[in-house]
Amino acid sequence: MMPRERVLVFGRLPEPGKTKTRLAPALGDEGAATLYAAFLDDAVAGLAAGTDRELWVPSRPGADRLATRYPSVSLRFQRRGDLGEKLADAFERTFEDAVDYAVIVGSDHPTLPRDHVPRALRALRGAHLALGPTRDGGYYAIGLRRYAWPSAAGLFDGAPWSRPELLEWTRARAVELDLCHVELPAWYDVDRPEDLIVMERDLDPDSATGRVWEKLGPELAVE
Predict the structure, then answer these.
(1) What structural domains and CATH numbers belong to the chain?
(2) Tally of CA atoms within 13 A in the half-sphere of 110 that contains its CB
(3) pLDDT tens, 5-36?
């Protein structure tokens, strides 16, 4: 039998004043939320057709409407807690479905090359863990194979979330847990106004983010 693969996009509801707040000084609350909605569109669109795909978001009022916006993917709700608890719960529930290889990818990197997530899935054929490093010391994707679970849950307990040492901590923890891991090429999240300059350089003008940026970008002055 062919192994079962699944990609889980971790996202959130685009809400002015609550989403991408670090971009708000440059774009305003509405602009930051509008741009993030395009990020999410591209994250979902970047998943290969035929792959088992899910969108995981916090359970908030209005989140149900994302099922209408993205009818080609299954909408799931993240548990409460910190990011580690959310990731661990998503992997747990995924492996309960007898999925063999699962990759969780974020939605803050609209220029991520489309081959990176499929590469993570392929890497799991020969490794327990696949990591997509970000240039700020975190990771944009993490993949696990079912037979590494539940030992691999230790990757999420006590991790230094939102700190620059997260990637190094995760690498060291993988060694402690005897998990063979593979790393994808590094990429970047778009979190701060200065990241918008790099994003604009790499942006596909035909992407959802590219179309939104065509309207927002000319009005923006980032030092």
Answers:
(1) 5-215 (3.90.550.10)
(2) 29
(3) 999 999 999 999 999 999 999 999 999 999 99
